[in-house]
Amino acid sequence: MTTASVPMAAPTTRMGSDERRELVLEAATIVFGQRGYSGTTTDQVAAAAGVSQPYVVRIFGTKEKLFLAVLQRALDVLMSAFRRAIAEDSEESVAHRMGTAYVDLLKDRGLLLSLMHGFVLGAETEIGKVARCGFLDVYRFLKNEAGLTAEEAADFLAHGMLLNTLVGMRMTDEYDTDPDARELLDGSLQHKLPLLLEVTDPTRKA
Prior knowledge:
The protein is an all-alpha fold. The chain has helices at 17-35, 42-49, 53-60, 63-87, 94-104, 111-119, 125-144, 150-168, 179-189, 193-200.
């Protein structure tokens, strides 16, 4: 399956080390999201970030450690989005607000797919450990901070995994030609569907 090319980052000559590290993580999130763990190289991440490959290795060491940093960043971004959602003064339910926040994370290209790649690598010793801990942290957050029941938390996670699956397989490619694909996407995304369509195909006309 072909994927969209990763844009080259702007020059980073005046950036500090923390800013450069974040730039590499943002680029790595996109590349890992598109290509998966096995299909990604540190050369590709470096090219996407506009830095040298030795620089990436100097900061993160190995590809595995780079992916672990991407995975942890994604989990941190996710939890921050959920906390902002539950803090909102809104008549919408907490679950609805968090669901909207989750879909909005599609704007952070590759973030949700990087999470998905991490979740399916459970057999990898270090990656699997971080993925399991992160997933359980989200589950505990949903119960202890968001106030969902165990059943509600499980349903929320299940819907999130459905969204990730639809994004990962590019189900939107079938939206205009397959009525069942359209029905599934309309029912799963509802008012946020235009965001997914735009993210997966920026050239698409409304």
